[in-house]
Amino acid sequence: MDIDLITNILYAMVRTGTPLLLVALGELVCEKSGVLNLGQEGMLLMGAVVGFVAALLSGSLMLGFLLAIIAGVTMSLLFGVIALGFNANQVATGLALTIFGTGLSAFIGTEFVGKPINGLDPYALPLLSDIPLIGKMLFAQDLVVYLSFGLFAAVYWFFRSSRPGLVVKAVGENPHAANAIGLPVMRTRYLAVMFGGAMAGLAGGYLSIAYTPLWVENMSAGRGWIALALVVFASWKVERVLLGAWLFGLASILHLVFQGLGFSISSNLLAILPYAATILVLVLLSRNQVRARLLAPMSLGKSFHASS
Amino acid sequence: MIKLEPRGQHSKLMAWLSPVLAGCLTLVSGAILFALLGQDPAEALHTLLIMPVSDLYGVAELFVKAAPILLCAIGLSVVFKAKVWNIGAEGQLLMGGLIGSACALQLIDAEGVWVLPLVLLSGMVGGALWALLAAWLKTYFNANEILTTIMLNYIALNLLIWAVHGPLKDPDGFNFPESAMFSDSALLPTLIDGTRIHYGMMFALFAVVVVWVLLSRSFLGFQIKVLGLDASAARLAGFREKRLVWIAMLISGALAGLAGVGEVSGPLGQLVPQISPGYGYAAIIVAFLGRLHPVGILLATLLMALIYMGGEMAQINLGLPIALTGLFQGMLLFYLLACDVLINFRIRIPALSRSAVAPIASQKETVR
């Protein structure tokens, strides 16, 4: 295996891992506040279709990304109103969001399937991108990938050294105690859910405007679900989300690697790899029941009503 | 401002009214959507909901679509009662279709009455094993079953696509990704001549009765319900939790597998890449909409099958995208969850009834 191939694999790994990283960071913040939003796949698809259509019709990629984010936030508010405002079961509401988002995105995007746009081009930073092996991987990417690095650092700092980060964690661990000392439980949870929506919307826009770039029905292919598993894999730790997202990026492009090396394995069989890897990771990480319970935010998935 | 106030106990009335309300809200939203799309709402809703079943063929087609949904949903009602979130009916259905097809294609030259039962059984085993895989991962490795079953759905779909492009592809099929047509002895007979309605619907109705008896009249069903209501109570009573999870998943997976093999040996007659337009996911909505009750599920299944047919009808007659089906399914589930808030809460508008709020709020503590 020559060095060019490895350089390109590392480059593609980060590119492929970026939507996973974005969704998983958003879901991590959401889960830290005690809310389990299984609707990532639906928000991702809505971000993808809205971003693509906006970019296609307006010709402005930035407008596409902006509207993708707004679409994600709107979807997350739908979840928020029903799961937080109406106290509905979070698991069922999240599933509903995914089913609804899948249907609505397919409906909106019917006329736009397969239409081409000029996607977001990579922007190589001078000098830095010439570093062997990791130069292309880290410094020859597009703006959204750089943004994902920044967002990762921001979320890391948020939980490590900011006061609002502490509030989110307090609300997620014990909403009743947080409520008793006057922390705004509901507002915190709404904001966390909206942040999750914005990240999923951005990731969707990235898929349809930069990564592919085109719109196909159901194009996220389970990335929203894989990102949910990533949060478990990361044991709710920010730095491990980055590692996990890139590892899964690698698992998703392994079929390209195998083809590049001349193995003749059916691409349909190799497409199973990321899903199988997700199951494997869940098994390894959840084996120890006590440990799994200690790591997850205490109130994860439980609804909260201030009067009870 | 509108306030939600805990009722203190479940409202049985609301539990049954909520799906009806959700259906009405979906219709109203649908009418608004059609108006926005420049269609006449009344005509569009007529096309969607009445036209598909205006003749005998249409009614028969309704049952053709209903059979797999009903089988999946009635199985899901068992696992959901145990609070095991099996989202994998779709994958179990696909595996049922895949394994059933593999069996039918092995027996393509065989004749006799034993062929069909064997094909159906292999499909059920396929679906059951796929579900038991998730049960094993849950009970032995504590892996979240929502995520594992979703992943198994994607894996099953890729396996199916691999199989129709590879080992199960019809050698005389001009390289189309389809299997050979099954032999007549591996096909489910139709119930009424001239229609496609087949024995799958009979199996589904039989499954409804069996599950009804299981859940309401048997000790096993009682154990499953207790596990779902309060897992620690079930443990305290000495019920074997893992065993119950396995049995519930076994039932659910076998029924979804039967739904899958029923499709390939029923209306399709061969293995194709698209054996299910999301029946397994629709069944989740049906199970919730039907309140996990057999009669409710039966009614909700017919509605869901109608939405599938209406979507096709709207595509042909009105030129609307087929994705309309998924949109209506999503709306229905969302409205249901929103309306379900009325089961445990009542809506108060404090500005209107300021005096009534205080005494009820204090009573609530004693009720609990």
From TrEMBL, chain A:
It is found in: Cell inner membrane. Pfam families: BPD_transp_2 (PF02653). GO terms for cellular component: plasma membrane. This is Nucleoside ABC transporter, permease protein 2. InterPro entries: ABC_transp_permease. GO terms for molecular function: transmembrane transporter activity. The keyword Cell membrane applies. It comes from the Bacteria. Keywords: Cell membrane, Membrane, Transmembrane, Transmembrane helix. The chain crosses the membrane at residues 12-30, 42-59, 65-86, 93-113, 133-159, 190-209, 215-234, 241-258, 264-285. It is a multi-pass membrane protein. It comes from Marinobacterium lacunae. Its main location: membrane.
TrEMBL record, chain B:
Keywords: Cell membrane, Membrane, Transmembrane, Transmembrane helix. The keyword DNA damage does not apply. Its main location: membrane. CDD domains: TM_PBP1_transp_TpRbsC_like. It is a multi-pass membrane protein. InterPro entries: ABC_transp_permease. The chain crosses the membrane at residues 12-36, 56-80, 92-108, 114-137, 146-165, 197-215, 244-261, 281-306, 318-338. It is found in: Cell inner membrane. One of its GO terms (cellular component) is plasma membrane. It holds the Pfam family BPD_transp_2. GO terms for molecular function: transmembrane transporter activity. This is Nucleoside ABC transporter, permease protein 1. It comes from Marinobacterium lacunae.
